[in-house]
Specification:
This protein is about 35% helix and about 20% strand. By secondary structure, the protein is an alpha+beta fold. Strands 1-3-2 form a three-stranded antiparallel beta sheet, with helices on one face. The radius of gyration is 11 Å and the shape is globular.
């Protein structure tokens, strides 16, 4: 979760993913749909609007990803 440099708005950042552009775009779409929020693909990761750590962690664990933190 980050706030810095965003005008006080909170975003959830998912990083440590393969740097494959089509993969990141598809994962971002799935996460945005699962959480019902907006987001974007950034260098090496995905940003979602809001504090969604628990939802993202649960979704990625169900998809078979190893989740730290």
């Amino acid at each position: 979760m980050e706030k810095k440099g965003r005008g006080g708005k909170t975003v959830t950042v998912v990083f440590g993913l393969p740097e494959n552009e089509p993969f990141l775009k598809e994962l971002a779409q799935q996460l945005k749909r699962a959480c019902g929020v907006g987001g974007t693909v950034v260098e090496g990761g995905v940003e979602l609007q809001g504090d969604l750590r628990d939802r993202v962690r649960d979704y990625l664990a169900k998809q078979g990803y190893v989740v730290k933190g």
